[in-house]
Structure formats: C-alpha cells, structure tokens
Amino acid sequence: MYTAASGALVAQSAVDTIANNLANVNTTGFKRTLLQVQAQPKTDLFRFQTDPGKSGAARSAGVPVQVAIGALGSGAQVYDTPADFAQGAIAATGNDLDVALSGPGFFAIRAGNNAVRYTRDGEFVRDQNGQLTAQNGDRVLNAAGNPVVLPTSGKIEIGRDGTISVAGQSYDKLAVVEFANPVNLRPEGANRFVDAGAGAAPATNTSALQGSLEKSNADVVRSMVDLISNERWFDANQKSIQTQDDAVALAVQTVGRTA
Q1: Residues 203 and 237 both lie in one domain
Q2: How many distinct structural domains can be found in the chain?
C-alpha cells in the first residue's frame, strides 16, 4: 500500500511539473522543468528461526539461524526538478531593445532586492531614468556589473557579442555569461535563475541577436502526452491502494471468526 502511495505522490508531482510547463508555453525565455525520479531505499528481508537441538531427545537449546530472503522495494520518490536548457525557437520582433541569445549564455540582471539573477528573457525596455530593464523592472547589467544606462537619443544597435552602439559609436556591453556547471543554476520564478555554484564566466559560445526573442522551449504536444500518461499512472497506483485496502478489510472481517 505504501509503495503504491509513493508512486501516486510522484505521479502527482509530475502532473504539477507538466502543468507549470504548459502554463509557460508563451513565456519568453522559459526553460521547461524536468522531473527526476529515483527508487526509495530497499529493505533486506530475512527469515529468523531457531533450529532444534542436534538430538531429538536432547534438552540442549536450539541454534538460531538467519536466512536471507531478498530485497523489498519501498516505492519511488522525486530526486530533483532541474531545468532543461535546450535552445528555444527564436522569433524576430523588429524591436531594437529585444535581444535573443543563441547558445548557452544568459543575461545578468539585478533584481529589486539587489541580488543578481540570470535570464534568457531579452524583452528589454528603457525606463524613465534611461536604464535598460526587464519587463518587471529588473535592471540589465553590463560587463562591469553595473546597470546599463542608455542615452535619450541615437539609434541603438546591439552586436552579436553584446556590444551596445549608439549612433554608430561603441557605448556599452551587455553582461552575457555562461556556466561551467548549469545543473547548479536553479529556477526562480518563470524565467529567472539563481547561481547556486554553477560557475559564471563571460560567454564565449553565445551570440546576441538584436530584434528577436527566444520563445519557451516547452513542447505543448509532448507535455499533453506526458500529462495523460502520468494521470493514468496516478490512477493505477490509486487502484492498487484500493485493492490493498479491500484485502486488509476482508482480513479484518474474516480472520479469527469462529464457526
């Protein structure tokens, strides 16, 4: 019963994960979440018994023995929920402040609490102070780690290396970084990531594409198929729990009954 219950809990977590991916199919720069499952620790089973004395007539104590039967699994559990950093489709927008990244890099931004976060969402705007920001107001950082401040006039061009030019003159450079160990880049919100030991370094294999945005890499069709599969998995475990419960109820009603 407990093994089936653990399977049902994992299936429920999978449904929640897939539902979140589906909810963000239109979120710019979103990276779908994966669900990694592992088996719970196994329990070794033994048969304990006491052998009789060597002679049937002897009153010597029996010899206790322990015979291994095998291992008993105790179900499954969620191991981790990492992000899938596969490249999303790039769509042209024509907006000079929209920037997509082709490659494994991330933009560095400073959140409202002054913490540095990383994102693939390049849908930037210029605020009333001239700072380049994300849609929620987080400030976009330059290669020196300072907010990018744009002039009030002049055509803005962003090169493939992130260099910002205004009216044909080099002006600033976007902070684009890559990570040596992206498994330690943990999701925060819809399209933000926290460096939990991922090892940020200046990007060398990433290109910035002005006038474009990277779409979510969530696959609607695959997510729907996975959603149906996990709902059936949940139902199967639920039926197993019910079967075990019925068996226990029958045993309680019949065992020990006298004629």
Answers
A1: no
A2: 2
Q: Where are the beta strands (DSSP E) in 73-168?
A: 76-80, 90-92, 99-102, 106-110, 116-119, 125-126, 132-133, 139-140, 156-158, 163-166
Q: Model pTM?
A: 0.80
Phi then psi for residue 244, to 5 deg, are: -65, -40
Q: What letter would DSSP give residue 184? A: G
Residue 119 forms beta bridges with which residues? 107
- Domain extent, residue 199, equals 90-214
- How far apart CA 29 and CA 85 sit, in angstroms, is 10
Torsion angle (degrees, nearest 10) of CA 207, 212, 216, 219: -100
For residue 72, what pLDDT is reported?
Answer: 86
Q: Look up residue 226 and give its amino acid.
A: D
- One-letter amino acid at 79 equals Y
Give the Cα separation of 47 and 250 in Å (integer). Answer: 26
Walk along the chain (259 residues) in steps of 10 and give the mean pLDDT of each run: 91 94 94 92 83 60 77 89 94 95 96 92 93 94 94 91 92 95 89 91 95 95 93 92 89 74
CB 81 within 8 A of CB 17: yes
User: What is the β-pairing status of strands 76-80 and 132-133?
Assistant: unpaired
* Helix (H) / strand (E) containing 129: none
